[in-house]
Amino acid sequence: MLAEACDVFADGDWIESKDQSPEGIRLIQTGNIGEGEFKDRGEKARYISEATFKRLRCIEVFEGDCLVSRLPDPVGRSCLLPNTGERIITAVDCTIIRFNTNQVIPTFFNYYSQSNDYLDAVDSETSGTTRKRISRSKLGQIRIPVLPLPEQQRIVRILDEAFEGIATARANAEKNLQNARALFESYLEAVFSQRGEGWEKKTIGKCFKVRSGDFLPAKAMVETGDIDVYGGNGIAGKHDTKNLSGENIIIGRVGAKCGNVRHVRGDLWLTDNAFHIAEYYCKFDLAFLERILTRKQLRNTANQAAQPVISYTTIKDIILEFPVSEYEQKKFSG
Q1: What is the DSSP letter of 222?
Q2: What is the mean pLDDT of residues 7-13?
Q3: Would you call 290 exposed, middle or buried from its count of C-beta atoms within 10 A (0-12, 13-18, 19+)?
Q4: SS3 334
Q5: pLDDT tens digit string along 191-247?
Q6: Where does residue 57 fall: left (phi above 0), alpha (psi -120 to 50 degrees), or beta otherwise?
Q7: Three-state SS for 228?
Q8: Is the CB of residue 312 less than 8 Å from the CB of residue 210?
Q9: 334 versus 121: which is more confidently predicted?
């Protein structure tokens, strides 16, 4: 069983918001644990002070330790902690595993934790209706293969090579995609500079009306909700309820990436740091609209205070040029 192959098998620490500090010892949470990979998410990093670390008698974790999330999605996913250059603790819903390396190679388990056999075994031991979880004791009882170390090493080498090949193929595909996009942008630029009949030129204020989302305090967000929360800089977290659904164009209103434009589909919560297009006065293919608004670089209209902000007033007079026909618009959607 899993717990029997470990020198350390313990949950992290219960850290409340009041215990956190602007800097100090880094707190790793379930959101940092990907399926076999560590997700740094440095922009959302949380910390506790040295004094709090001592007061709460926290457990420090180290490079090479395995962290397992007892919450979805999926329950039981794991990662190996890299060298982040920081002192680190982890949250109570993360189980700390320090393997007895005479029995299990940590990388071997990290690969095994991505298998259907393991995930199905964990899922069968979960409880909860709205939010599944597994207890540490149940997690410790999950059976894992303890093969001879040379065999574990052989399997790790094979999987390392396979994942390296996948990463190379993905990088090549992304490079080809970038080249294709550059070619398309060049073509698009030529088309926009040589417009034919059937095009209109109107201000944003004549094309649509925007409205900001709703205030949502950070403490109201959840780590593993079903609804993405969009703010001024993109996805800011998760929530349990929605305030928008369907197909929408949203525009960052506040922050370093204000003015960014996204064409989103499905349920979401939009904060008051972003706009959505609430009323259309012209017909648009939304993928096309996303493209032409992005080309307008709306961020340039922001006031240049410490916290850049754009408003409907600053963007409503920007001129858009577009074909009236949605069929023609689709040709330039990318």
Answers
A1: B
A2: 92
A3: buried
A4: coil
A5: 555 566 778 889 999 999 999 999 888 778 776 678 888 887 778 788 888 999 999
A6: left
A7: strand
A8: yes
A9: 121
